[in-house]
Design brief:
612 residues; alpha+beta; Recoverin, domain 1; six-stranded mixed sheet; two-stranded antiparallel ribbon; 27 helices; MINY3/4; ubiquitinyl hydrolase 1; K48-linked deubiquitinase activity
Length: 612
C-alpha cells in the first residue's frame, strides 16, 4: 500500500504542475484537500503552488529512500519529474522493478519452508549443522579454489556450488579477471576463456574467486527460477547497518550480529529471514555480491538452500518430488537429499538421476533429469547397482561432476573438455545402451521383451547369426548382461564390438578430485620428517586415468604381451605408452569413475582420494 500511495502522490504532483484547469479530485477519497483548497485557476492560488511543491518533494524523498534500500552503493538522486514527465517515471520504474525490496516471509510461508526442509521432528544437532556452515574458500594455497566444509550435513549444497565455481575458474578465467564482466554478463553467459586451463590454483586472486562464487550462485538461482528470476534469502542485517561500523570488516560485523542466533523452529526463521526477488541477472549478481558476507557467515549454506527453494517456488518444488511428505534434509544424519543436489544442478528438485521420467503404468510415473546440464553427477551407489545415472548427468557440458557416496558429496573434474569425447568404441556402446534402455520397462531391471529386442537390433544395425539370436530369445525376455556379452564377441562388421585390429585405441587423461572436508594430508611436501601431526586441510588429488582399448582388462593384458613381442623392433615411445599396462590402484572413487569410463585404470601419488 505504501508504494501505491507514493505513486499517487507523484502522479498528483505531475498533474498539478501541468494542468491549466482545476484539478479533478481523486476518486478513491471522499474529500481531497487539494480540491477543497482550489476554487479557481491553479496559477492564481498560492496554496495550490505550495501544495504542489510539498507533494513533489515528499514523493522524491520516498523514492530516494527506496532506492537507497535497494542498492548498497551510492547512486545519483533521481529527479522526481523530467521533461516529458511520464517517460522519466518509466525509466525510474524499470530500474526498481528488476529488484523487489526485501520482505519477510509470512508465518504460513515460513512454516511450509521449514517443514519442507527439516520436517516436524528434526533434532537440534541437524539444525546446528545447517546453521554453522558458511560458503568460504580454503586458506590453503594448494586448495584455494575450494570451499571448506566444517559440518557433515550441508556438503551437498557446497559440492554443487563448488562444481559451478570450478567451471568459471577453469573455463572462464579470462572473464574473472575483468571486473566489468560482473555487471555486463549474466550468469552462464556465452563467454569462453581463451587461456589454457591450469591447475595452479594458488595464483588465483581473492577478486577472481569472489567473482567465480557470485557468478556460480547467480547461475544456480536463475536456473532454479526457470531463468526468469532469482530469489535471494538474507537476514535482517542491512547493508546500511553494516556500513555504520567503521574500522571493522563486514565479516566481523555479520559474525557479531549472529552471536546468540539459534534456528530451532519456523518462527525463529521467520523472525530473521528476509527475501528479495531479482528479475535482472545483473541486479542479482550485484545483490549477491553485496550480501556475500552473509553467505560467508555460519548461516551461508542454509541461506543459499532457502534461496534456491524460493527461486524455484515451494509449490513447484513439492510437485517435482515423488514423495513430498519427506523432508529434504534426511534423518538421522542431516545430509542433503538427492532432490537438493538435483535442484542445484539442474533447477528441478526431482529425486532420481536417470534421464527423463519412468512410466510405472496406471498413470503413475517417477521423475528424473529432464535435459542436459552444465555440470554433472556420479555416484558410488551406481557401482553397487542401487541406481542408474543417465547420460544427462554423466555427460554434462563441462567435465565437472559432483560425486555422491553413502554419506558425503565431493567433486571430480578435468581441465580438458576432450576427456568426454567418445571414440568409435564408446560411441557404439552409448548407441546400443540407449536403444536398450528405451525398451526397458522393468524400472531399471535390465531386461526387455523379445519385441523390444528386435527393435534394438533394427535401430543399432546389429546382425546376429541365427543360432545366437534364437538362444537370446529362448526365455521370452532378454537380459542386458547376456546381450552385452554376445555383443562383445560379435565381430565389428556385424555391428558388434570385437575388433581384431585394436585401432579403437586407449584413452589416457588426468582427473582431479576435491574433498572439502579438512583431512590429514600426507601427499608430497606435506609429509613431515619430524613425525609431527600432518596438516589438516581440504584435499586435492590428481589422478592419471587410462581406459584400455579392450572391453575386459584380462583380454587387454593378454593382448599386450603378444603385440609387444611382435612389434618390439619398431615400437616408438608413444606406442610403448599405449601398449604398456598401467599399475592399478583402487579406492571407492575409482568405482565411481568406472560408471563413467568403464574399465578405467587409475593411479595417483600419496594418500588415496577419499569420497567420505
Amino acid at each position: 500500500m505504501g508504494d501505491r500511495g507514493e505513486d499517487e502522490d507523484l502522479q498528483m504532483a505531475i498533474r498539478m504542475s501541468m494542468q491549466r484547469g482545476t484539478p479533478e479530485p481523486k476518486r478513491s477519497k471522499p474529500r481531497d484537500a487539494v480540491a477543497d483548497a482550489v476554487s479557481g485557476s491553479p496559477e492564481e492560488l498560492p496554496e495550490y503552488k505550495t501544495r504542489r511543491r510539498e507533494l513533489m518533494a515528499a514523493a522524491a524523498e520516498k523514492r530516494m529512500a527506496a532506492a537507497a534500500r535497494v542498492s548498497p552503493s551510492p547512486s545519483p538522486s533521481p529527479s522526481p519529474v523530467k521533461k516529458g514527465g511520464e517517460s522519466g517515471r518509466r525509466e525510474e520504474d524499470s530500474c526498481l522493478k528488476s529488484v523487489n525490496l526485501s520482505k519477510e516471509l509470512s508465518v504460513e510461508e515460513a512454516n511450509q519452508l521449514f517443514g519442507m526442509v527439516f520436517g516436524n521432528e528434526v533434532s537440534k544437532g541437524i539444525l546446528a549443522q545447517w546453521s554453522n556452515q558458511g560458503i568460504r574458500f580454503s586458506s590453503d594455497p594448494v586448495t584455494s579454489m575450494g570451499l571448506v566444509q566444517h559440518e557433515g550435513g550441508p556438503c551437498g549444497v557446497l559440492a554443487a556450488i563448488q562444481a559451478f565455481v570450478l567451471k568459471y575458474i577453469i573455463f572462464f578465467s579470462d572473464e574473472l579477471k575483468d571486473v566489468s564482466c560482473m555487471s555486463q554478463k549474466g550468469p552462464g553467459a556465452a563467454f569462453k576463456s581463451q587461456s589454457v586451463p591450469s591447475n595452479n590454483f594458488s595464483s588465483l586472486t581473492e577478486g577472481e574467486k569472489v567473482r567465480a562464487l557470485v557468478k556460480s550462485m547467480g547461475e544456480i538461482l536463475f536456473s532454479c527460477g526457470s531463468n526468469r528470476r532469482a530469489v535471494i534469502a538474507t537476514l535482517s542485517i542491512s547493508e546500511n547497518d553494516i556500513q555504520r561500523f567503521e574500522g571493522i570488516s563486514k565479516d566481523e560485523v555479520v559474525s557479531k550480529s549472529l552471536q546468540g542466533l539459534s534456528i530451532e523452529s519456523a518462527l525463529d526463521l521467520q523472525k530473521v529471514l528476509r527475501v528479495e526477488t531479482c528479475t535482472s541477472q545483473t541486479n542479482a549478481l550485484q545483490r549477491l555480491e553485496a550480501n556475500l558476507p552473509l553467505f560467508q557467515s555460519r548461516m551461508g549454506a542454509l541461506l543459499f538452500l532457502i534461496s534456491a527453494l524460493l527461486s524455484r517456488g515451494l509449490d513447484l518444488v513439492q510437485s517435482d518430488r515423488d514423495d513430498p511428505s519427506l523432508p529434504l534434509v534426511t534423518a538421522p544424519f542431516g545430509h542433503a537429499s538427492q532432490e537438493i543436489v538435483n535442484l542445484l544442478l539442474c533447477g528441478e528438485a526431482v529425486p532420481n538421476v536417470f534421464d527423463g521420467r519412468m512410466d510405472l503404468g496406471g498413470g503413475m510415473f517417477v521423475k528424473g533429469i529432464s535435459g542436459y546440464v552444465e555440470v554433472g553427477f556420479l555416484t558410488l551407489l551406481e557401482s553397487l547397482n542401487f541406481c542408474k545415472v543417465g547420460q544427462f548427468l554423466k555427460s554434462p557440458k563441462w567435465p565437472i561432476w559432483v560425486v555422491g557416496s553413502e554419506s558425503h558429496y565431493t567433486v571430480l573434474f578435468a581441465l580438458d573438455p576432450s576427456v568426454q569425447n567418445e571414440n568409435e568404441l564408446e560411441g557404439k556402446e552409448t548407441l546400443i545402451r540407449r536403444a536398450f534402455d528405451a525398451q526397458d520397462q522393468s524400472g531399471g531391471g535390465g531386461f526387455i521383451s523379445v519385441e523390444g529386442f528386435h527393435q534394438v537390433l533394427r535401430e543399432t544395425n546389429i546382425k546376429f547369426p541365427p543360432e545366437k539370436l534364437e538362444h537370446l530369445c529362448s526365455s521370452g525376455f532378454i537380459v542386458w548382461s547376456e546381450f552385452w556379452q554376445v555383443i562383445l564377441d560379435l565381430d565389428k562388421s556385424l555391428g558388434g564390438l570385437k575388433d581384431s585390429s585394436g585401432l579403437m585405441g586407449k584413452k589416457v587423461f588426468d582427473l582431479y578430485h576435491f574433498n572439502g572436508i579438512a583431512k590429514s594430508d600426507l601427499n608430497g611436501s606435506q609429509v613431515n620428517s619430524r613425525g609431527e601431526t600432518p596438516l589438516q586441510r581440504p584435499r586435492l588429488t590428481k589422478l592419471r586415468v587410462s581406459v584400455p582399448p579392450r572391453w575386459t582388462p584380462e583380454e587387454f593384458m593378454a593382448d599386450v604381451k603378444v603385440s609387444s613381442a611382435a612389434s618390439a623392433s619398431e615400437s616408438t615411445g608413444k606406442d610403448d605408452e599405449v601398449s604398456k599396462p598401467e599399475p592399478s590402484q583402487h579406492a571407492p572413487l575409482v568405482d565411481c569413475i568406472r560408471t563413467r569410463w568403464a574399465r578405467a585404470v587409475c593411479t595417483w601419488s600419496g594418500d588415496p582420494p577419499s569420497i567420505v
